[in-house]
Structure formats: C-alpha cells, structure tokens
Amino acid sequence: MREPEAMVFVVDDDEYVRESLVSLIRSIGLGVSTFASAKEFLESSRTNVPSCLVLDVKLPGLSGLELQQRLAEINVEIPIVFISGHGDIPMSVRAMKAGAVEFLTKPFSDQDLLDAISLALERDRVARVQQAAVSDLLRRYETLTPREREVMHLVVSGLLNKQVAARLRTSEITVKVHRGQVMQKMHAGSLADLVRMSERLGALLTDKA
Amino acid sequence: MLGLLALAFVTFVCFRFQVNSTTVALLYLIVIGLVSLQGNFVPSAIVSLIAYISLDFFFTTPLFTVAMNQALDFVAPITYVTTAFVITRLISNVRKSNEERRRTEETLRKSQAELAHVTRVMTMGEMAASIAHEINQPLAAVVNNAGACVRWLNADSPNLNEAREAAQRIIRDGNRASEVIKRIRAFLRKSDTEKIELDLNKTIQEIVSLMQKEAQSHNVTLRTDFDVDLPVVRGDRVQLQQVILNLVMNGIEAMTTVTNRPRELLIGARASETDKVLVYVRDVGIGIGHQNGDSIFDPFFTTKPNGMGMGLAISRSIVEDHGGQLWAEPNKEFGTTFQFTILKY
C-alpha cells in the first residue's frame, strides 16, 4: 500500500465507533490509525505527514479536553476535531477556545465529519508549510557569523553602510562585504526582503527568549 | 351431606345395639359439632333438626313417634341449635379474619413491589445521561457505517467488500442499541415477583453492563469476579438486579471524593455454606461512619443530599424475601463491602 498523503488519528474508547470511523475515513482515501485512550495516543509515534486528530471528549483516564491541553504543553501542534456523545456548551466553548477545528455531537453526519477532517488537514498542511519556511529561515540565520548578524540588524534598522561602519568602528568597504554575505546567506533578493525576514526572525527570537 | 350420612350411621348402629337415649343424644351432638366446623349455619341447622327428630323417633319413649314428652325432647333441640349456631359463628369469624390478613399481606406485597418499581425508575432516571450515551454510541456507529457504506459503493470502482462489511456492522450496532433498550425495559417492567431458576453471573452482568458508562463518568472502574462453577439460585431477576444496582450506585457515590487511590468497584459472587451463594460489592470509598452503623438499612435514612433513603431498605427487604441476608462490613483499608446471601435453587 502506498504511503497515504494524510493521516487521521482517532481516539475513542468505543470499539464499534472506532471501527465505523476507520471505514468512513478510509473510504475517502485517507490513512487512519485508532487509539482507545489518550495515553495510547501519547505513546504512539506519528509519521511526518499532514495529520489531524478526531478526539472523543469523554475518555477513560485522560479526557479529550485534557489531552488537548497536554498536547499544547508538549508543543505538539495537531488540529483537533472533537466528537462527543453529549455536547454541552461549556465543553465545546472550552475546546474551541483552545483551538479545536470543530466540535461535533454524536451521531453526526458523515459529511460533517469529513468536512471537518478536510479542514483540519488543510490547516495542518498550511501550518507545516509555514513551519518549514520558518525553520528554513532560522537555519539560514544560524549560518551568519556574529559580525554579520550585527551588520544585518543595523542595516535593517535603516542605517546606511557609512553609518554602520561608524557604529562598528570599521571601514565602509568591510561593511559592504559583510552585507553582501548576509544577503547571499539569507537568500534575500532585496533590502525589503531582508527587512521582512528580520521581522519574522525578531518575532521568533523574542518568542524563544 | 356427609353429616347426614354420619347421622344415619350413628342412628343405625345405636338402634341395633339398643344404646340409651342420652348417649345417642351426645353422639348426635358430636356429629353436629363436626358439621358446624364447616362454618355454614343452614346445613348445621338441618342436621340439628334431623338429629332431634330421629332422637325423638327412635330412642325416646314412646318409640316411633315424634312428640315432646321428656326433658330430653326439649333440651336436645335447643342444645343442638345453639351449638350449631355458636360453632358456625366462631368458624366464620376465624375465616373472615384470615381472609383479611391475607388481603392485607397482598396489599403490602403489592405496595412493596410498587415502591421497588418507583425506586428502579428513579435510579434509572439518575443514570439517564449515561444510558442515553450507551444508546447513542451504537447509533453514531450506525450512521458512520452507513455513510462509509454509501461512499464505498459510490466510488469510481465500488469496493463491495468494504461496503458489505460496513453494512454488517450496521446490523450488529443496530442490534447493540436495541439490546440496551430491551434490557432497560425489562428492568423497568412492572411485574409481580417471579422466583425462578437464575444464572446469577448472567443476571449481574446484564445490570453491570448498563452501569459501565455511569461508573466511567465518575472515573470508577467496575470489575467483576465470579466463581466459575457458580450454582444457580432461585430468585426474581429484576429484583436481584435492583439490589445490585443499588449497591453499585452507592459504591460509586462513596468514592466520588476519593482522589488518592484508583476508584475501583469489585462485584463478585461465590458459593457460601452449603445451600447459599454470597454476592459482594466492594468499594474503596469513604466508608460508613461508625455512628451510622446498621441504621443505613432503615427506610428514609440517607447521607446523600438528593437521596430518598429507600435503596438499602428495599434491597434488604428483597434479599430477605429471597431467604437471604444483606449486611455491610468495613474493609481493612478503605471503603465498605456490602454483601448478601441468596438461596441456591
């Protein structure tokens, strides 16, 4: 069997519901993997393809909502579609506030679930692309020498080469060379590009700090 | 009729052996007394009358005539009739009071059954959410499977195998939902007690399966431990299920504040003594306070804010009606064990 292009993980304690969801999800050509409890899911290893989680709210042990919280704590970003036997409003509000894609009450229509799954997978795909771009940017930034980083910060803050040179007590020609290196290493086509990259990096770096 | 035959027999024998009239009169009195034990005054009166006539006719002088010419001729009829009257009255009184007692017992039994039924309905009401879930779950599976089935069939190259399997799961899950409903209806049915041969294991499993979700929603794990060769017992299925239900609900309730140990409820059954089976429900809850003791079995005794206090009282009367006993014992470490005995079939 070919590697499915997307994976759906189902966590529900009812065996029959799991079986039915497997068949339904497979019928539209998606990969699916099921778990009877939150613990099982946390212990599993996941392949690196766009994926989403179909999660029952009421589970023995760790509940669905607690699992959502736990995943956020350990920085696992996976879009979640909640399914629940009895949707109560506070529960769904809590789930949606914490970033769930959808909150469906059993029995839900197959179309609703599949729509929610598509939406969730699309979100994950976009997030993955963004994530890839970000890590690429970070990787490139990490190849810069400390001096090159200094030059980059001063350049994007709007200083001219001459001013940068004065600030760093070096020659204008050296700054020019550093600047050329920065543009090349960061794959920036123009100063505007570099400014945008620096902004995103700035956000990331302050996040990390 | 029998009285008349007895009378004829006495008359014949006494006449043959020339027994004196006083003895005959007494013998007749015995016959009348016996006839009167039937409790009907009219036949007794007839027998008395005939007895008097034959006494007068055959035994008192002048023989073969009916005439009042001796003291006995006067005393006998009065005695006979009075005796017949007093005895029949007494007997009919006794009968009436017996009848009344029977009726009272019947009413009592009926209202007990009524009460048991009401509390069954109430307990089921408390469990409504989890029961709804129990039915909803297979329904959700049915809807999913049906969706999957249609999709497998609608694919560019329909996958009949997958579709067939989905359809088969629809059948199975539909049956599962109706099974739950059937069990609830059986449990809520209003019926007279019917003590039959019961497989205790199956009886208990049925009710426990209804309570799984309820337990789960309180984070309680239900475990069962039955002897493999559990003897069959004699009892009313629904009533015994009610006892189990009450004990399990209490057990779950007793553990709601427990956080430092796994909330586990064990339901077990094993043979006990020679003619009994012991059923126990063991929780690891907060236990029964000393001050409460045996009064937990009193009607209207409750520690729950919304409790009616009938659960244990009804359970005890059901168990006693089955020739058994219900009692509670504190566990060595935590919680309480409720146990009851029930007679083997």
Secondary structure: elements and pairs:
The complex is a heterodimer of chains A (209) and B (345).
Chain A: E1 7-11, H1 15-26, E2 31-35, H2 38-43, E3 51-56, H3 64-73, E4 80-84, H4 89-97, E5 102-105, H5 110-142, H6 146-156, H7 161-168, H8 172-185, H9 191-208
Parallel strand pairs in A: 1-2, 1-3, 3-4, 4-5
Chain B: H1 2-16, H2 21-36, H3 41-59, H4 71-126, H5 128-154, H6 160-188, E1 196-198, H7 200-217, E2 221-226, E3 233-235, H8 237-254, E4 264-272, E5 276-282, H9 311-321, E6 326-330, E7 336-343
Parallel strand pairs in B: 2-4
Antiparallel strand pairs in B: 1-3, 4-5, 5-7, 6-7
Helix pairs in contact in B: 1-2, 1-3, 2-3, 2-4, 3-4, 5-6, 5-7, 7-8, 8-9
If you had to describe this structure to a student in words, what would you say it looks like?
The complex is a heterodimer of chains A (209) and B (345). Chain A has helices at residues 15-26, 38-43, 64-73, 89-97, 110-142, 146-156, 161-168, 172-185, 191-208; strands at residues 7-11, 31-35, 51-56, 80-84, 102-105. Chain A is α/β, with parallel strands linked by helices and 209 residues long. Chain A has a five-stranded parallel sheet, with helices on both faces. The longest helix of chain A has 33 residues, at 110-142. The mean pLDDT of chain A is 88. With 345 residues, chain B is of the alpha+beta class. Chain B is 61% helix and 12% strand. Chain B has nine helices and seven strands. Chain B has helices spanning 2-16, 21-36, 41-59, 71-126, 128-154, 160-188, 200-217, 237-254, 311-321; strands at residues 196-198, 221-226, 233-235, 264-272, 276-282, 326-330, 336-343. In chain B, the strands form two sheets. Chain B has a five-stranded mixed sheet with strand order 2-4-5-7-6. In chain B, strands 1-3 form a two-stranded antiparallel sheet. In chain B, helix 5 (128-154) runs antiparallel to helix 6 (160-188). The chains are: A alpha/beta (209), B alpha+beta (345). Chains A and B meet through helix 1 and helix 5 of A and helix 5 and helix 6 of B.
